[in-house]
Task: structure prediction
Amino acid sequence: MGVCGAGGSGVLDRQPRVEYVVNLASNAVLDRLAEPAMRAVRRLSKKSGETEHVYGEFRYKTKKTWKYERRILYKAEVTRHPNAIRRIIRALLSPT
Result:
């Protein structure tokens, strides 16, 4: 099932027993929460002169649009291209 737009996860949340993973576009709040990892990966890349990655996760709930807290996984990355943060929302039925 393909869903796009800000309300996409709400559509999926209303479906019984649906699992999904979403790759988010830029999000200022999530970017701010991942900024310590971006600082760390910038230092690593400056020292090594190579592409570097830092992976992490945190739990997050929006104030209005998400009914429950979600696990946010991210990859902070410095490449020879502009810096990037990847955000994925995991809503799987299994506990891991």
